[in-house]
Amino acid sequence: MTAFQHTAGTAMECLSIPITLQKEPGTDSEGREVLRCGFKIGGGIDQDHTRSPYGYTDSGVYVTEVSSGSPADRAGLKMHDKILQCNGYDFTMVTHKKAVDYIKKHPVLNLLVARKGVTST
Amino acid sequence: MSPPAVAWIPIMDTESLKSGFSEISNRSRRIVTTPSGGGGGHTPIGGGFAGGTNINGGINGGIIHSAGGGSVTSLSLPGRHHHRNHHHHRSHNHSRSGRNSRREEPLLETPESGHGSEIMDHQVVLSAAQSPDNNRAPSIAQTPREGHEVIEVQILPQDDGWGDAATAVTGNTSDRSNSPIGNGGTVNSIKWATIPQENQSSDNLGWCQRYVGSVIGAGIVVIAVASPIVMVVGHRIGFPSSRPVTNTRECGPECHAFLLALTVKLVALFGAVWAIFWRGSPATMPRIFFFRAITLLLAFLAAFTFWLFYWVRAEEDGDLSIVGATAFAGGLADALLAIHYLGVLLTEVRQLQPQFQVTVVRSPDGMSKQWIMGSLSIQRAAVWVLQNYYSEFPLYNPHLDRMPPIRKRQPSMNNSTATSFKFYDFDGISSTFTPTGRMSRRGSSHNERFYEEHEYERRVRKRRARLVAATEEAFTHIKRLQDEQGKGPAVPLDAMEAAAAVFPSLARPLQKYLRVTRQQPWHTAESVLHHLAACLRLGLAPRAFLDRYLSYQPVLQGSREGSVSSWALVSDFSVSRTVGKDTNFLLRNGEVSLYVTVAPLPHFNITEQVVDPKSNKFTLRLSSETSV
Q1: Counting one residue from A and one from B, how many pairs have CB atoms under 8 Å apart?
Q2: Global ipTM
Q3: Residue A98: closest C-alpha in chain B
Q4: Potential cystine with B258: which of A5, B12, B277, B326 (Cβ 3.0-4.6 Å)?
Q5: pTM over cut 0.80
Q6: Distance between CA atoms of B254 and B115, rounded to whole angstroms?
């Protein structure tokens, strides 16, 4: 079973790419000071992956957009990467909200991502 | 279509001989029969007709089930219109068992009174002596079974003699009958089949009252418009003749120019007057029509002034040349055109701009509509409202409100508000609070009313569905002959005959539908046939034919008033005032009242709002992703 067709909760073994992302301060839409990473995630165990416009095949957390010049871009994160782990926390069985919370919590993110074509064929 | 009118009567006679029934034809022939001993062995009525007509199986309308179970139908029909005989036959499906007992049947077949026929007494023979539970037949004498039994039952004339009027008596095929007869009422409580008489409103609008304004106005207009011609021609022929003929009568270039211009102006004036003013006014109003009076006054003044000056010039000074005369005439024509323009603006154009919103509520049934109106005086607004009322409001059906009471449900209803409210007046006049016709329905509690209306609508829809189905099927039987297909088996029929051939198969559903919606006084069999013939001739679809019966016609087409209808205008303010913010008035005619309220439209403040085209950029925002 590949990393991109993973049934949440089952054990899996796959290759992954480690990415270290340093957040930088920025302002969000309401003007507050936040640490922004510069990417968007979608999916989660509570989301219906069959309705995603990108055609994701399982209910993991995927990166749906990386804005150029952002810390995510500099760290090497690419669009449609699936985040497998974040700071040691498993992201294959999280809800969308939890994923967002975890990402926002720490200033430095150590991610393990799976990329189609790179970590799996 | 050849049910011989004569053929069934003998059958009926034999039938009646055997069954103890008799019937009266329109020749008022009374058949007195002796019932033979025992009723067995008589042929059912239906057998005699099945060959001749296309009676459906379920023509079972006029059946009362007495306690004994033997059921009876009876028929009596004036055979005047032979094509109507089908519908009057009520064959009953029950085989007549050997029991001859307990047959009772009040026959209440009524003739059509709308055709001006005389009211016929239908005489019914009943062998009702034996059933003690004969509590439904009105005014029937119990007579012994043997011997001659002739009982007279007077029936109110009904308009729908073409249909199955016996159902009114005995209840319908459905077990939810509204008929008062079947429910213990009497014959006289059938009120809903009479046509209101023609003279319900006093048409005492005399000739003088109606036309005096128009005649005066017409006179002034004629005089004024003819004046220029008279001026010019008069000068030519030496009128007024007392003037010495001194001036030349040659017509120079100015005179020619004037004359040509005068001709054109007069043509325009004639055309204008004919187009706008030379038609009957739509209404006779209680107060004078202010703007028209002003216009006429101005025209009169203009004509008078011009004539005055003309006369003075011609008579006294004697120096009126042809140029002068034509100048006067031309000037008068100009003045009249200007006044005509003013009149048109005042009376026709000013009210075109919408300024008020008018709400009209019709009193007995609460139907309302809203329109937009211009600025008018109250009386003219009343005329305008009436014109729109006659063309847009659906016809008022007084019978819908006077529905006979629904057949009583089980007495164990928990409805305690059904009793009428009694009070005693100590001055010696005691009375019960008799509810108005609307509330005379038992069960004025809201719950019952809700269910009643629900049931009623269900019934209407059911019958409507049957009617539409029957009509569509009936229409498929008619095929238009494309060209000379003389080789076909049937002889080609013209439209009226085709209609009469198709009519019986949809007569019953149509009549039942009309009964349910209480429309049957408005549609006679003749009118239905004519309409059907017209639809067939023009190739209309079945639903187009049905539209007249399924939807309410506008008041104008359905009302039976003459060409003059009188309405009483009740208003708090003087009716010559212009309508304003709080204007209410009432128009009343008989039992229909129209309550009119007027509300002014606000002044609209339109501002321009510029939308920057650069703001027309869009991004896709999916709810399934979050930005971190």
Answers
A1: 30
A2: 0.76
A3: B626
A4: B326
A5: no
A6: 72
